[in-house]
Request: fold
Amino acid sequence: MERPDPSEIVRPMLRVRQVREFTAEPIEAAELDAIADAGRWSGSSRNAQPWRFVVIRDAATLREIHEAGLPQTRSLATAAAAVVIVMPQQSGGGISLAYDEGRAAERMLIAASLLGLGAGIAWLRPEARPAVAALLDVPEDRFIRTLLAIGHPTEAARQPKSAPGEARLAREATVFDERWPR
Ligand SMILES: Cc1cc2nc3c(=O)[nH]c(=O)nc-3n(C[C@H](O)[C@H](O)[C@H](O)COP(=O)(O)O)c2cc1C
Reply:
């Protein structure tokens, strides 16, 4: 059998896009477990696994976080669930920790997409972080910056946001052969 084109193999990754509007359909516990496992198995600097994940399905909690973090948290207005990434408060190592956090966040977006769900990143502004941390009983030495809103995308959210191929810079503008172009 002929091997599929590499770009076709990788295409599911290209379909991992930000989703902010969800239907009322709930998410199964096993789906959330699988998404959290994708985060848990992410690589991190020195394999420190600095993250902890709080999985939220309670509608009242989701709406409270939505209110606390607007407008960045607008996707939580309709999300069926959220995964909150809880990171250590640390004076040094901030860049390395943020890098690890981004790796875990993106993997969970990919996992949601592979399950046919939609997901989106919401960043909590520094001013909004203490209220959300208190709501979730997060200890003082940890903080929350990234939330993932998850659910079944609405029909509108499934539609392309721009013409085919136009949502990103062209390959020639971003990927260079052997050296920086003259
Ligand atoms: C570090 C980071 C922070 C983000 N913060 C938010 C946010 O607070 N709220 C939000 O709705 N989207 C947020 N996004 C999502 C971006 O807006 C989205 O990835 C970008 O618009 C590309 O969307 P697309 O993949 O659907 O084209 C964030 C993305 C990243 C990488």
